[in-house]
Amino acid sequence: MARLCKKEVPDFVDRMEKLYPEAECALKFENPFQLLIAVVLSAQTTDKSVNTVTPRLFAEHPDAASIAAMPQEELEDILRRIGMYRTKAKNIRALCSILAEKHGGRVPENYDELVALPGVGRKTANVVLSVAFGQPRIAVDTHVFRLANRIGLAQEPDVLKTELALMKLLPEEHWIRLHHALIWHGRQVCTSRNPKCGVCGIADLCRKNGLK
Predict the structure, then answer these.
(1) What is the pLDDT of residue 5?
(2) How many CA atoms lie within 13 A of 133 on its CB side?
(3) Tens digit of each residue's pLDDT (9 = 90 or more) over 94-116
(4) Active site residue 77
(5) Which of 24, 74, 106, 160 has a 20 to 30 Å separation from 189 between CA atoms?
(6) What is residue 32's three-state secondary structure?
(7) How far apart (Å, rounded) are the C-alpha atoms in residues 167 and 138?
(8) How far apart are CA 179 and CA 98, in angstroms?
(9) Which one from 123, 158, 204, 212 is the annotated catalytic residue?
(10) Known catalytic residue: 196?
(11) Has this prediction a pTM greater than 0.90?
């Protein structure tokens, strides 16, 4: 399957940003700490599900020291409605202990320090750095990975290579907005099964099924 060429990129970027001008992170948070916890919780779980448990968690335990001091069973009870809640509760308590002890309760603005935290991988770190701190990053989740390779932005077998391909192809100043636009497009139009190609605003640019 052919990839989009450089001369098509400005048109693609312009259309995506016009299609989804209000695209943003769907997780509910009020500060970088809450965002970090919410993104860790969102692994293999919908943002909607995470948003059902975090209001209580943050209301009762608003900072890293408070969550670190929680009994495992209490945290599990709050998180019970989301997938892998036991593992996530363990990781979050450990993560919060490190934040409280080594970082004064603050979320690091450094990639290496973020991925050193329990439960924090490359995607989570990129989301936090871009959304909370405005650093130009492209976080490749399942939607971005699927769309990038389906549309023709990349032809890569894994998440890391897809991220690197997107960084090379797309203008850096658009990375953050396009990350969110691709996620919204993946949820609303270019779904995993039965994508709505007939109503897609970038169908004529898409390489799927030989459309281009």
Answers:
(1) 80
(2) 18
(3) 999 999 999 999 999 999 999 99
(4) no
(5) 160
(6) helix
(7) 7
(8) 29
(9) 123
(10) no
(11) yes
